[in-house]
Amino acid sequence: MTSLKINVANILEVEPGPIRCITLNENTLKLALFRGGKFPAIEIWDVSHIPFMEKVLTDLEKMDDQASVESMVWSKNRLFSCGLHGFVLEHDIIRLKIKGRVAATSGPVWCVGVNPTDTRLAAGTEDGFVNIFEVLEEGLIYLKVLDRQEGRVLCLSWSPCGKFIATGSIDSIRLWDVEKGHAFQRLMTGRSKNTETIVWSILMLEDFFIVSGDSRGIISFWDGRVGVQRHKTNTHKADILTLKLSSDKSAIYAAGVDPTVVLLARTGRNGDKWVKSHQRIMHTNDVMCLATHGNKLFSAGIDADLVVSSFPPKIVTKYPPLPQPSRMSLSIDANQLLIRNSHGIDIWRFPDENQAELVKLLELKSRKEDSVESASQSPTGNFLAYSTLSRINFFRLSTLPNGENLELRKLKSRIPTDFHEEADHVFPFLHFLDETRVLALSADAQYALLWEIDDLVANVSCTILKLSSKLKEELKNFGGAIVSTVSASGEFLTIGNSKGTALVLQIVTTNPPSLKLQSRIPTYRHIATSFAFHPMKPLLFLTYLDHTVKVWNYSTHQVIYVDKVTKQNSELQPILSCKWSKDGEMVALHESDKIYLLRVEVSGEQPKKRKRKTSLSGSTAQDPDEKIHFQIQSCGNKYKFVAFIDFNGKDELVVVEVKPNRLIEKLPPAFAKKRFGM
Predict the structure, then answer these.
(1) Which of 120, 209, 310, 337 has its CA 20 to 30 A from that of 450?
(2) Residues 192, 203: contact at Cβ < 8 Å?
(3) Which has the closest alpha carbon to 383: 348, 432, 325, 440?
(4) How much is the pTM?
């Protein structure tokens, strides 16, 4: 058994962007969160099993050159957001673009909410207006605006019947009749030491029962029918920024600047009393938002971690702000690592016989700091391609005489005259098929472009790949691609969606160039998180959200191996990527905190067609002439926040790791509590 050298590189600089707001789609179990900071984006997570980041939306509306998302909400499986720019936006989560925008009446929009039937959307603005929009298939249609109030509308909540709205502002809460457009109750919160009380969060329950959280750290319970405060409880030492009702409506979660998450349980004969139950300390900084599903609580805030907790039993799992593994790629012949940042690209060279340390060869910033959606480097490192929201750029790379820097030369690229949709599509998948050919696949998987580099004339030509009729039929309800990879030969491409379906496509480069359906992998109950092609055989390695691993023979259309990489349920993290070694004898998998090595034993020829049986261990029984077996080996728990792995040669594994301390150092100061004796 050959020994494997593991080369760990701590070169990845991650900016822990604070999570400002989250919203959960109860139908599809998709969680949308907005991560602010230097590199703002909306992330779509699948939380049906283990939370896994599927997509990143960087096409956002800006205010003073800064993206702004103050609140988000799902309606009919569609995502809407608002911000200081004064618009209510609809996001196309398949094409990763803004689908539509509607201006709200007067100024920035602080909050949005939908009624229980998902037919109307309310938006609260800076100047005290509540805008009501009707949610139709073609988009949002302005319906009415409620009477203007004094001060901004910071939060709102619809009543369970959908006829009333409760809004929170400075020093007061108002109840609105949506049909009449008037406020029929005004509830005064009072002040502490003559300081304004800001109502940051509000819930409207059945029977006009209202719950509010404010800047004093107080949760107040109101009877909206008579306009009086029933009781209040001081749960936090600072502002309460978010309240969330549990799925069974038996508990309320509260958190804020004081990062303690407090649970209030419903008691009393009529269930009209709420008492402080237990608390959880899971964050180091402000908790900005909460979401619930079943007994799971999703919390996030300034410390940039998405935390999933449940009680009882008490289980807390943190998902750090790591970039997707697709942001990095390795050029083996050039011994170089490409790292795609949100607004640029870095290229590093690994140590060799001539140098003992990692050297940064290139630091490229995109034009006007456009978001970089995808990037790829040719196998020998001579060419670079990257895509933004509006175009695809190509460069020729050459090493300077000092050997420690790269020189860039931009190549001219042309789009076919019959392709006018490029500006309306994002291309998050770029793959070098060989040294001079690049495949670009759109987010919705409906368009594929083949680019050919002519180095002599510094030009790049483009051809639209024609989709076969069988492939078009498969892609009708595919719903967009979330993961993709290409074979070493550049002949095959695989894509997977958020429904557990994966396709292997054949790339035909002869005239006319086209994409054909090679094989359809049976739909699994969980999504595929990563793929890896065997370097020599027609085999595809797949990992799934529940830690199931499979090997699919896309020549015979059979599963030849299936098993599970198991851990304790309380420690589960998704498998982020998999890589096959260059000699095909080993597969490496990684989570954020662990690396697995699967050593392969393959013998025999292609199996004959006969009835197949599945063994109890999970491996598929085939002809005795063909056997495949993986010996699973864990590399221990010494790794933390692994962002990328790949084989750099036959006996070397490159690991890109982020040290937790480097993330903590970049966080703002946490809320300070007085402790006994201090």
Answers:
(1) 337
(2) no
(3) 432
(4) 0.93
